[in-house]
Amino acid sequence: MVSNPRVCHMTRVYSTLIGIFMIYYCWVAWIALHPDVTPEYCAYYITRESSISPQMERGTRPIRLFEQLTPDDPRLIFHRWSPPETTFRWSDGPLGTIVFTLQRAVVELAEGRIVLSIGTNGPQRVKVSLNGKPMVDRAAGNNTVIELNFDPRLLNVGKNHLDFRFPDAKRPGNGDPRQLAIFIRSLKIF
Asked: How confident is the model over 80-103, as pLDDT tens digits?
């Protein structure tokens, strides 16, 4: 049997092209499955762990020391919290985060104290961390003041995260479907 050299040549060309396309598509799949993005981008767009977009987080204005901040202040970003009501904002579920921005001068002058004025949906256990460092784990009732005292070096120039855990969050029993734990009336940084 005599083979046609032209057919053998075309078979090698097709095999080479198929190999090149397979390598290319494997590379594209690798890039799609392992994107080189910031953690904020990944948390918002890819894993959906955050409801705070990177643009929203970059757009916040810095806050000042000794200023009483209310839950509707646009300089605070509330993640996993209900929309603000008249004078307070409810947590919504067992976790919540408040993000705020500080400038270098504020961080350098800070005493290392945050005061939260809260109310609760019945007796609640409240755990609070600042930038990943646990600060408070305590019971809270209505009209509670939570005071966080910490080393001021824990504050970041730029974004700071106040993370909350509410193991006792529950529905209030009045038809409201939300899992409520606490509501914040004000926040003040010293």
From this structure: 999 999 999 999 999 999 999 999
Q: Which two tokens stand for residue 9?
A: 């040549």
- The whole-number pLDDT of residue 32 equals 80
Instruction: Give the pLDDT score at 14.
Output: 84
The residue written with tokens 């509707």 in the block is 72
Tokens of 164: 């909350």
Report the SS3 class of residue 96: strand
Q: What is the dihedral of CA 159, 86, 146, 134, to 10 degrees?
A: -40
Please report, in angstroms and rounded to a whole number, the separation of the first and last CA atoms in the chain: 92
Distance between CA atoms of residues 181 and 167, nearest Å: 8
At 108, which amino acid appears? Answer: E
Helix and strand tally (H, E) in the chain? 4, 9
- Cα-Cα-Cα-Cα dihedral sign, residues 32, 59, 63, 89: negative
Confidence of residue 56 (pLDDT cuts 50, 70, 90): confident
Residue 77: name the closest of 93, 92, 57, 102 by CA.
Answer: 57
| Higher-confidence position of 38 and 161 | 161
